């Protein structure tokens, strides 16, 4: 039987409800979805270490039998080959996402013509939610409740207590 494995790559720092919404949609379309957390060793100040992001994603995706969570570094297309994935899943929230996503999709196609990029839209209620904005609001003391899963909120609160 022809099964389709897809990769959903990202920084996920932190994972948001928008990411979770996309994972749920992807898990319905693909036979297996690998959530791939970029291990970006040189990023100056991540909110969470790669392993913490993996733990949070594993916890919040436990209900999906066909979803796994891995880390990767280097080229995404190489990781996709290792995973024998046929597709890359990316979320598009607004037109502003399009340019960057278009460039990445075409570069990845050049590097690995056999790999298709598939775009999906998250629920409208998450269309403005990004990890970058979540981090910013959190650092300035605003509430991000309802925008990130409860386990992520809990870890953010703990992180905030450690920083103070
Ligand atoms: O959540 P993000 O930060 O928008 O995810 C970006 C990500 C991780 C998908 C992208 O930076 C990536 O694929 N990095 C791996 C390095 C790579 O393959 N770069 C060339 C992509 S065209």
Class computed from helices, strands and strand pairing: alpha/beta
Beta-strand residue fraction = 15-25%
Number-wise, the strands total 5
Shape type: globular
CATH superfamily: HUPs
Oligomer: single chain
- Order of strands, main sheet, comes to 3-2-1-4-5
Helix proportion? 40-55%
How would you characterize the largest beta sheet?
5 strands, parallel
Low-confidence stretches: none
Count of distinct structural domains: 1
Query: Which architecture would the CATH scheme give at its second level?
Result: 3-Layer(aba) Sandwich
Question: Would you tell me which CATH topology applies?
Answer: Rossmann fold
Count, helices: 6
- For the terminal residues, how far apart are their CA atoms? 55 Å
Over all CA atoms, what is the radius of gyration? 16 Å
Can you walk me through this structure?
The chain has six helices and five strands. A five-stranded parallel beta sheet has the order 3-2-1-4-5, sandwiched between helices. The model has no long low-confidence stretch (mean pLDDT about 95). The chain has a single domain, classed as Rossmann fold (3-Layer(aba) Sandwich). By secondary structure, it is of the alpha/beta class.
Topology, please?
Blueprint: E1 5-10, H1 17-29, E2 32-38, H2 50-60, E3 67-72, H3 76-82, E4 87-91, H4 95-111, E5 116-120, H5 131-139, H6 150-163
Parallel strand pairs: 1-2, 1-4, 2-3, 4-5
Bound molecules: 4'-phosphopantetheine.
């Amino acid at each position: 039987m022809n099964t389709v494995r897809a990769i959903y790559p990202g920084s996920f720092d932190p994972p948001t409800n928008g990411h979770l919404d996309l994972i749920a949609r992807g898990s319905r379309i693909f036979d297996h979805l690998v959530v791939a957390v970029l291990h970006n060793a040189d990023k100056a100040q991540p909110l969470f270490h790669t392993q913490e992001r993996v733990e949070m994603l594993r916890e919040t995706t436990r209900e999906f039998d066909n979803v796994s969570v891995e880390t990767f570094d280097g080229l995404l297309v190489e990781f996709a080959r290792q995973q024998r994935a046929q597709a890359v899943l990316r979320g598009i929230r607004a037109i502003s996402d399009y340019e960057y996503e278009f460039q990445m999709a075409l570069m990845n196609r050049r590097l690995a013509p056999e790999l298709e990029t598939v775009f999906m839209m998250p629920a409208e209620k998450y269309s403005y939610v990004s990890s970058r904005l979540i981090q910013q609001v959190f650092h300035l003391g605003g509430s991000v409740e309802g925008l990130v899963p409860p386990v992520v909120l809990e870890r953010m609160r703990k992180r905030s207590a450690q920083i103070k």
